[in-house]
Amino acid sequence: MYPQLEISQLATTLFSFLLVMVVDASRAGTSCRSQPCGSSLPRSWKLTRLLHKESADLLKIYKTSQGDLSELFCKMSMDNVPDPDISGLDPSARIQSMYSNTQIFLPHLQRVTEQQTDLQIISSPLLSKLSQAYSRTSSLGSQISCIYQTFFPNSPLLEPVGVPTPLPLSQNIFQQKVYGCVVLKRLKEFLSNATREIKALKHQICTKGTQPNVPS
Amino acid sequence: MKAVALKVPLLFLVLMAPSALASSTQVANIYPQDPALPIGASLTATCSVSPDLGLHASKLFWTLNGRRLPSSSYSVLSPTAVSVTLARLPASHQRSGDNLVCHNPAGHVLAGSCLYVGMAPERPVNLTCWSRNTKDLTCRWAPGGQGETFIRTKYTLKYKLRWYGRERECEDYSLVQPYTCYIPRDLALFTPYEIWVEATNQLGSSTSDVITLDILDVVTTDPPSGVSVGRVGDLEDQLSVRWETPPALKDFLFQAKYQIRYRLEDSQDWKVMDDVGNQTSCRLAGLRPGTVYFVQVRCNPVGIYGSRKPGIWSEWSHPTAASTPLSERVMSGSCDSKSGDSNSTLRRELKQFFGWVRKHAYGCSGMSIKLYDQWRVWMQKSHKTRNQASSCTRDMRRT
C-alpha cells in the first residue's frame, strides 16, 4: 500500500516480532505441560526481563512527551491504579498473583494509549511503544498462565474477581498525564518484581531432582 | 539560566518531599481547564483549594512548564483562591499542552491545567491525487501558511462524486508520509470526483480548494517490466533497450508512452530520451565505446480508456546496465600482462581486468564479453568518465 515504508520502521517491527517469537511460548497446538523447567520458565523470565527493560524506555519517552515537570507526575499518588506488588506465601499463590496483575494492568495500559492518542501527534513513538507494551504484557500473562497450569494442573487459575482497580472516570488532560505516568511507573515496578519472582521460582521449583508438579 | 536556577531547587524540594497528595478526590482545581488560546493571548487562571487543606491561598505558587511564575503575577482572590495572569503567551512547547500547575508551599502538586497555545490552521494547499492502475486513489497536500500550528490539528480528506453521492471521508492516513491519505477501493470511473481537505483544531478550521478529477485522468502505473539492455552487434556506440508493457495495464485500452534515461556508470547525471513514443524498444546511439551505461525506463498511461489527458509518469524501473563494445578484445591466452609495452590507458585497464578475473572468475578459461561487462559494473565506482550526447533510434531488430 505504501511501498515507501521506511526500512528502519520495517526492520524494527520485524526484529521485535522475531524477538517475541523466540521468547514467547508457542500456544498454537503446543501443550503447556511440555518441559516447564526446560523451556517455559526460562522463556518467561527472558520475556519479563525484556518487558522490564522496555518499560523503562517507555516511561522515559512518556515523560518527555508530557513536557517539563513531568517527573513530578510519576510521584503523585492516585487512586485506582494497579498495585505492582506480588502477593502470596507459596509458589501457586505468587504465580496466581503475577497472572492477576498482568490482567489488571492491561485495561489501564489501553486507557493510557487511548488518552495519549488524542494528545500526541500520530507518528509519536510513544504510541507504538504503548501498543507494544500492551501486547507484550498480554503475552506475559499467557505465559504465566501456562506455567501455572503446568505446575498446578489440579488447581484452576483464577481470573481477577470483579474490577479490582476500575478505570478512572473522566479526567482532565493534566490528570490524564499524571495517570499515565503512574500506571507506567507501576508497570515497571511490577515487571521488576516479576523478573525476580520468576527467577526465584526457577530456582525453587526446578532444582535438580524436583518433580515439576509441585503441590500447592 | 535563571529559569534553570529556579527549576533545580524546585525539583529538589519536590523530589525530597513525600509524594504529593493530588488524588482523584480533588483537593484543588484550576479554572479554566485545558484552554486553547491563540499565540500572544493572555490568560488568567484561578487555583481553588479545598478549605479542608487548611492552606491559605497566599501561600500557594504557580509553575508553567516547570518554571516558577513570579508572585507579582498572582492575585489572591479569597483565602482559598489565587489567580495568575499570563501575558503574551508563546506557542506551546509540546503537543500535549503546556503544564500550568498550582503548588502548595512545600512544592507538592495540588492541581494542573494544560494550555494549548497555537494558531488556527490555514487553508491546506497543493492538493494532488493519483490513482495506481485505476484501482485506488492517493492524495497528498501541504499545510497552509508556515505549516505549524503548535497545537494538535486534524486534517480530513473528503471526497464525493460531483453530481451525486454522499460526502465521504478518507480513513487511511499515512504514518510515514505526513499529509497523505489513501482510498483503497470502490472508486467510480468516468465520473468526476470533488476532493478537498479540511483542517481543524481548537482555534478554528479551514478548507482547501476543491479539486475535481476523473480517476482516469490521474492514473499512474508500475514501471515497465522486463527491461533489458544489450549490445547491437559490434557497434561500439550503440545499445539496444527493450521492455514490456506494465502488466497491470495489459487489459486496459490505452496508448502508453515511455521515457528512457541513461547515465554513465559513475555519473549521477541522467540523459533523458522522451521521444520514445509507445514502442517497447529503442536503440541508444552516439554512446562512448567500452563504457558501462545504466538505463531506466518509465511509463505514462496516456489516453487510458479514452481519456484525453496525459497520465502520470510511473516510477523508473530498476537500473539495468550494459557496456558498449571495446575496439580491442582480449582473446584466449595467458592472463599475464606483457612487459615492454607502453603504459596506455587500455593496458592499465586490461591489467585491472585480468586481476579481477583471476580473483573472481577462477581464471581466464571462461573469458567472454559478459565477463568483461560484469567487471565494468564492478568497477563502476572507481572510474570517472565524461558525458556524451546520444539519441534514441528505434531498434528495428525487435521481432
What is the total tally of β strands of chain B? 27
Largest interface by Cβ-Cβ < 8 Å:
A-B, 36 and 41 residues
Radius of gyration of chain A: 18 Å
Q: Count of helical segments of chain B?
A: 3
Question: Spans of chain B of 5+ residues with little confidence (pLDDT < 50)?
Answer: 1-24, 330-334, 337-342, 384-390
Order of helices and strands of chain A: HHHHHH
Distance between the termini of chain B: 78 Å
The level of helicity of chain B is: 10-25%
* Integer average pLDDT of chain A: 81
Shape of chain A: elongated
Strand order of the largest sheet of chain B: 2-9-8-4-5
Question: What structural keywords apply?
Answer:
heterodimer, A: 216 residues, mainly alpha, 6 helices, B: 399 residues, five-stranded mixed beta sheet, 27 strands
Written description of the protein model:
The complex is a heterodimer of chains A (216) and B (399). In chain A, α2 packs antiparallel against α5 (125-151). Chain A has 216 residues and is mainly alpha-helical. Chain A has helices at 7-23, 36-66, 70-73, 91-119, 125-151, 173-205. Chain A is elongated, with a radius of gyration of 18 Å. With 399 residues, chain B is mainly beta. Chain B is built from three helices and 27 strands. In chain B, the strands form six sheets. Chain B has a five-stranded mixed sheet with strand order 2-9-8-4-5. Helix content of chain B is 10%, strand content 35%. Mean pLDDT of chain B is 83; it is low at 1-24, 330-334, 337-342 and 384-390. The A-B interface holds A 1-2, 4-6, 9, 65-73, 75-80, 116, 118-124, 168, 172-175, 177-178 and B 7, 11, 14-15, 19-25, 30, 33-34, 63, 65-67, 93-99, 101, 109, 111-114, 152, 172-178, 182, 184.
